[in-house]
Known about the structure:
4-stranded mixed β-sheet, alpha+beta, 30% strand
Amino acid sequence: MSALPLSHVSAGILRDATGRVLIAQRPAGKHMAGWWEFPGGKAADGESGVQALARELAEELGVRVGPCHRLLELRHDYADRRIVLDVYIVADYAGEPQSLEGQALKWVDPTALGAEALLPADRPIVEALLRALRLAAAREGTGQHPAVSGAAGGPATVRAGV
């Protein structure tokens, strides 16, 4: 019996001007079609996690990624494959996310992410994100989500603060 194939995947947490988080639905024909996920994708040979994230978000969403901060790395085994998932908070991005690969997109309040049909590998990201947001809010001395700036009606510039 051979070992399951291993893929290195990068995922990004993008937030809008109100603090909501972007998730994407896996399109028909892809592994785990219909499930929701944090945007990103597989790293090409020789790519770092951040390089893969920047390339994938440009291809999938049409955004340019600025500074990113690692939230966590996790491993997950599916029945037919294993993944190592590098998850980043995208502290800054330019452009308005749009569906360039036919995937549905949805902005969700971070506290409502647990109710979404997220991929099993993405479930631990929700807990880590909520923990990071609580810590950032405590550092800022508020009970609110960390500050996010952006021009109303224009491309968002997100400052996650975590």
